[in-house]
Amino acid sequence: MRLHLHLLSDSTGETLENIAKAALAQFDDVETLRHFWPMVRSEAHLERILQEIAQNPGLVLFTLVNSEIRRTLEARCRAMGLPAVAPLDPVNHALTNLLGQEAKARPGRQHVLDAAYFARVDAIQFTIAHDDGIGMEDWEEADVVLVGVSRSSKTPTSIYLANRGYKTANIPIVVESPPPPDLYKLRHPLIVGLTTSADRLVAIRRNRLLSLNQHPETSYVDQDSVAREIAYARRMFADNGWPVIDVTRRSIEETAAAIIQLCNERMAGLTGGDRE
User: pLDDT tens digits, residue range 242-269?
Assistant: First the structure.
């Protein structure tokens, strides 16, 4: 099935794209042709877009706060027999009822450069500078420290967490070269062990070697050696009481969500009187 999807936003359109992506993920065998229209803030701009919509009819999703532009879009879509959906409207209506105030018609208000934005930038810079065991003198400043064997999704998970505002360091676990003693002395960061199945790890490592044009038959991808690595890492996690997340069947987003939940639970415990 082929679908023309028109996304209209009076800001960057990032929110709308994420909503569309999440919704489309629930449907199979759909060829989606996306037409992306950001920064729609004038009737003239909207008129040009409506001409494109008429030529490629489909579903119209929009986040527009200007009431006149919204009315024009909705009326023209009705005339063409096309659905026009404002996905944020139900949330705004619910908040209006609960808070007793009308929503402010301010395009892109969520992208204002506030303290949270700069915290995310700081977290990203920290995380990039503390990848793969680098910068151990600053590990105490991290919010999260990820430990795991090679190719257990430490770096991509770290970057995802950084984009959520968490300063994240990651440290490889190598049997022949144990982590420095500083790791076991950390107090502030939440240390999380990442593990996976030997079969998955061997497949990922083999693909990695092939992509680098390296010989794919080494101890790095030997099934027994990999199993010993994973067992060594798991013993380390257990000996230190670190929470463990198995990433075998988890996406990066799911792994990060589980870590954030652990952070929230830890913070709730600290603020509840468990702080040492």
Answer: 999 999 999 999 999 999 999 999 988 7
Count how many Cα atoms sit within 13 Å of the Cα of residue 138 in the half-sphere of its side chain: 16
Cβ(56)–Cβ(33) below 8 Å: yes
Report the candidate in 249, 226, 153, 222 with the shortest Cα–Cα distance to residue 193. 153
19 half-sphere exposure, CB direction, 13 A CA radius: 19
* Residue 12 three-state SS: coil
Q: Record the tokens describing residue 157, joined without a space.
A: 């998970």
Q: 75-86: per-residue pLDDT in tens? A: 999 999 999 999
Which among 250, 156, 159 has a CA at the least distance from the CA of 200? 250
Per-residue CA distances from 205 to 38, 87, 94, 162, 254 (Å): 40, 42, 49, 25, 21
CA 39 centroid distance within chain? 24
Exposure b/e, 240-253, CB count within 10 A at least 16 = b: eeeeebebeebebe
Task: Give the residue-averaged pLDDT of 8-37.
Answer: 90
Provide the 3-class DSSP secondary structure of residue 102.
coil
Matching residue, tokens 């993920």:
25
pLDDT digits (tens, 9 = 90+) for 154-180: 999 999 999 889 999 999 999 999 999
